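Reading group handout, session on sequence-to-structure problems. Before we discuss, look at one worked example. The prompt was deliberately terse, the way you'd type it at a terminal:

> structure Luciferase family oxidoreductase, group 1

The input record follows.
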Amino acid sequence: MRYSLVELAPVTPGGTNREALDRALAAAEEAEQLGYHRFWFAEHHHVTGYAAQDPVPLIAAATQRTTRIRLGSGAVLLNHHSAFSVAERFLMLESLAPRRIDLGLGRSTATPLIDHALRRDRNSRPADDFPDQVQEIIGYLHRAFDPAHPFTAIDLTAGIDTIPEVWVLGSSGSSAGLAARLGIGYTFGGHINPGMTTRALRQYRQNFTKTPFGTGVPQAMLALNIVAADDEEKAHRLTWPARALRAGGRDRPIPTLAQAEAELDASARARPSTVVDGVIPTQISGTPATLRAQLEPVIREAGATEVMVQDMLTDSAARTRSRQIVAQVLQSITI
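And the output record:
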């Protein structure tokens, strides 16, 4: 099956954003070598622990360092952007790397202050117009506006032979119907809301409508936080920095393993990181021998056609080995 990665560009204690971004771009090259299908960059505003604030420049840089792997956003947060500007910027990326660009669309909130700072029009009340924005982007990319629509005269694709592949990302299940109705790919954040995983992806598959805007078949991607190592204890320990970040507040660099061990109490360190009886933990860990037995039933139950892997590993050797193991395991699963 297909397996992909989403990169947060984690910042280490005492490290710089430049170093984090260099690691992120090197990780895109490594992912291509390991056979990952896609490599997406996240959007996080005013977050100390992540250097990936805007995916667009990172995607542009990665197009020059890779040749095969698909590159995209996981996700562009549409509540902070105009549909026109997003469509225009991703068509530019498509020109740089034809047939390799993914436009992942989502919505999220930062603090009220940052949300306000990101807004261009601060005199009107915020509105949740995510479905309208997604459909407007589809209209630009596919020249699909109704003939009476004022934007019909706009042709952003002039001189561009291919267009990005559009995905909707969500973690509550509310966007599953939108992706299904538009006939485009859907990514569910199982690491954020594991209990909704099967229901959300089933809703998407059952309501999928074939349209000219997608591949014609459901693309049901499941995003999970997965770390791996050659022994179970080490693999489990690799989940601690992410746990410490959640427990101690996110406005700081990603804790080292030693910091996480010192910050977490015994119960937090011992919290399960393996899939048991279909229950998906926030972080999944395993070895080459145990990871497949955990993941395959989850993938089959959810009906996922692809897995998007997230991790917060900053140790380069541990990250490389983890991603090697995960790639080998997911590659061995047939659906």
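Points for discussion. First: The mean pLDDT is 96. Second: Residues 176 and 203 are 6 Å apart (CA to CA).
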